[in-house]
Amino acid sequence: EAQYLIEMGEMLNSTGKDSAALDIFRNTIETIPEVKKARFKIASIYYFRGQYDSVLAYYREELKVNLEAVKLAPHMIASAFENLNQIDSAEVYFKKAVTLFPKNKIPYENLGKFYEKYSRYDEAIAAFRQMAAQKIDSATTLIGYNKIGDLFLRKALEETDKITGRDFISNALKNYKEVLSIDKFNIEARRK
To answer: Could you tell me the end-to-end alpha-carbon distance of the chain, in angstroms, rounded to an integer?
Structure first.
């Protein structure tokens, strides 16, 4: 019965009838409280509606009860905080996702992208280095190192806009050397 209700709610939501889907998911929670997936679905609908306060309430409650059922919850909570311009709280949950799921590349990637968005390049580079160091799989390692190279270039470009003369040249060379060492690693990794 619970699976049927979840599927019915998902079908309604996918056809644009999110209010009817919410009713089904709420009914599922009331009649079969142990069905955690319904709470997650409600929070997702609120997220896509832009009702971030409701998202936070649902996900916080779910995280207290069942971490495994909501592997994306820390990221969604972080995104909700970010959309509410609560950047410090968003950062806490992006980091929490990395701690909770260290063998999953997505939390590292989300944390790195979060830092990149706010031009916090050193922290973004650290997040992608952490991702690559986990050696989740060879593709993830390569993605991490490629992203680090991109970030060093962006950082160098932004920094060089602010400086001139010798400082410009030494800063550009420093960042370029870092990118070359990462490219060398990528080439060697592809050969293996």
So the answer is: 50
